[in-house]
């Protein structure tokens, strides 16, 4: 269902650092694959039948595709910015649609209720006006002018602040979040969600961060982000339907859901429907 349009996209399939530890067995869109390193150290991805798949190593991860991608993997300029710390958070397996995982990452309204006293708190539950759009030149979904009060916006934050966000969806199963950087207000912290579709209702999520934070230990940075996402996992695994509905009449959106609405429209425009539910059942 909707598989062909997404076959030619790039997907994360493992950490590059792990290729040196031997063969990593995983799956991509239902196809068993193996990730390993060649004699020269380059990453290699093959199907169980031995077919070599295209490979890109970027943002500390190995990316591959079952099809023939007609474009390069998206860029994140901050990944080349001196002074940033790059945090490989690891992987979390989630029993949900890969598209659901991305959509949840775009949801602002759940902060006070799911990430209580960290990314949100009552009575600060109102989602202020913001802008969501499909940018045709970049062919990406963006949300800007997003602001939310947060008791602890980042591990480096020492108290509650009103945090500004920008959301970017450059690929069907990837999202990039830019948010206020407490130590450097003129810069953005970058938090990404790279989602590997194992099946239409199962995915591996690989968070990655590019931060300005010289104080916090790498272990604490990883634990902070894992705590946030594990709070999301219980919500994601209980959503009904498990696949992401693309029919506008299947779920009633609110003002806070503008980014989700734009994301779903963008998915339908490109026939990115692997992991989606097209009609009410």
TrEMBL record:
Any one GO molecular-function label of the UniProt entry: oxidoreductase activity
Protein name (database record): Vanillate O-demethylase oxygenase-like C-terminal catalytic domain-containing protein
Residues covered by the Vanillate O-demethylase oxygenase-like C-terminal catalytic domain: 94-269
Record key words, sorted: Oxidoreductase, Plasmid
Lineage, top ranks: Bacteria, Pseudomonadati, Pseudomonadota, Alphaproteobacteria, Hyphomicrobiales
One Pfam family matching this protein: VanA_C
């Amino acid at each position: 269902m909707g598989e062909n349009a997404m076959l030619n996209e790039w997907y994360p399939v493992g950490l590059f650092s792990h290729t040196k530890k031997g063969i990593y067995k995983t799956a991509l869109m239902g196809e068993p694959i193996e990730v390993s390193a060649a004699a020269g150290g380059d990453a290699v991805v093959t199907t169980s039948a031995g077919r070599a798949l295209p490979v890109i190593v970027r943002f500390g991860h190995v990316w591959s595709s079952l099809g023939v991608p007609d474009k390069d993997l998206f860029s994140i300029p901050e990944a080349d910015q001196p002074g940033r710390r790059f945090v490989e958070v690891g992987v979390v397996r989630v029993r949900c649609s890969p598209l659901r995982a991305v959509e949840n990452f775009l949801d602002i309204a759940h902060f006070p209720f799911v990430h209580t006293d960290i990314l949100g708190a009552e009575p600060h539950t109102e989602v202020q006006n913001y802008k969501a759009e499909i940018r045709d030149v970049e062919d990406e979904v963006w949300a800007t002018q997003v602001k939310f009060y947060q008791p602890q916006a980042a591990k480096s934050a020492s108290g509650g602040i009103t945090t500004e966000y920008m959301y970017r969806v450059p690929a069907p199963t990837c999202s990039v979040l830019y948010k206020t950087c407490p130590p450097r207000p003129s810069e953005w912290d970058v938090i990404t969600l790279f989602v590997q579709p194992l099946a239409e209702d199962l995915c591996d999520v690989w968070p990655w961060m590019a931060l300005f934070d010289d104080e916090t230990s790498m272990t604490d940075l990883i634990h902070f982000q894992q705590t946030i996402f594990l709070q999301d996992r219980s919500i994601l695994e209980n959503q009904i339907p498990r696949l992401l509905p693309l029919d506008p009449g299947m779920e009633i959106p609110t003002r806070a859901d503008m980014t989700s609405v734009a994301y779903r429209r963008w998915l339908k425009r490109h026939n990115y429907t692997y992991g989606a539910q097209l009609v009410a059942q």
